[in-house]
């Protein structure tokens, strides 16, 4: 099988492509017709606190990029849940493509109803890269797949956080990436639903620029005690990735 080909049992449909995740020989099926993953997912997968074993759930999993990347960091059983059938199917085929069926499972469904299937406190860790924008104006002139990924059409921020609380065991950890503009709302909701913020890290495009992402870790039923990590700067002044970003994507700056 040559590079770019898939095993015969894993189909690649029209307008889909095969992308390299640049780590552990992982590949992922993507399509610009739906919503390809971006840097926020990669940063979350590296930032997330995950147990060596146990059970992890990724909400709003999209095409499964975060479960794929987490599989390189843990021996835990990993699940992803995605409400869009096309994306869930792409994620399942990517899991099959990487021969991870025994460790990663993709559910198709509504994260708000998942606890009815799993029971309360079923997971040791949870990751989520949710829709960032409330459904109050905004640009909904996207195709439906992209609109659902970016706007709170099927779940609000509060529904994501309340569902996370029910899914996590006491002492379980939530890891989220979001927009800094909503940090106040996020902190309020986390504490309202017994998820104590423990670690915060801001991501800045360049030194001297405002943050455009924030990474947050919260502990189910934890005690108040939050750490703010040094900022993560994406680009050097010359436009190249900073050393830490190279390490996240390639393993080292020399690994590109």
TrEMBL record:
GO terms for biological process: methylation. It holds the Pfam family MTS. This is Methyltransferase. InterPro entries: SAM-dependent_MTases_sf, Small_mtfrase_dom, tRNA_Adenine-N(6)_MTase. Residues 41-180 form the Methyltransferase small domain. Keywords: Methyltransferase, Transferase. The keyword Cell membrane does not apply. GO terms for molecular function: methyltransferase activity. PANTHER family: TRNA1(VAL) (ADENINE(37)-N6)-METHYLTRANSFERASE (PTHR47739:SF1).
């Amino acid at each position: 099988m040559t590079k770019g080909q898939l095993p015969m049992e894993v189909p690649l449909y029209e307008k889909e492509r095969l992308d390299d995740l640049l780590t552990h020989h992982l590949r992922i099926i993507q399509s610009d017709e739906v919503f390809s993953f971006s840097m926020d997912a990669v940063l979350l997968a590296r930032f997330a606190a995950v147990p060596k074993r146990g059970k992890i759930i990724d909400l709003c999993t999209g095409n499964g990029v975060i479960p794929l990347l987490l599989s390189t960091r843990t021996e835990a059983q990993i699940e992803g849940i995605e409400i869009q059938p096309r994306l869930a199917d792409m994620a399942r085929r990517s899991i099959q493509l990487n021969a991870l069926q025994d460790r990663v499972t993709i559910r198709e469904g509504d994260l708000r109803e998942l606890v009815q299937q799993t029971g309360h406190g079923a997971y040791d860790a949870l990751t989520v890269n949710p829709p960032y924008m409330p459904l109050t104006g905004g640009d909904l002139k996207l195709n439906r797949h992209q609109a659902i990924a970016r706007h709170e059409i099927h779940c609000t921020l509060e529904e994501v956080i309340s569902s996370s609380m029910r899914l996590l065991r006491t002492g379980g950890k939530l890891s989220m990436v979001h927009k800094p503009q909503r940090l106040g709302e996020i902190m309020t909701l986390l504490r309202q639903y017994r998820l104590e913020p423990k670690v915060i890290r801001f991501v800045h495009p360049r030194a001297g620029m405002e943050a455009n992402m924030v990474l947050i870790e919260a502990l189910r039923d934890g005690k108040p005690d939050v750490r703010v990590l040094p900022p993560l700067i994406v680009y050097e002044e010359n436009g190249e990735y900073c050393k830490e970003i190279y390490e996240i994507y390639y393993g080292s700056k020399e690994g590109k």
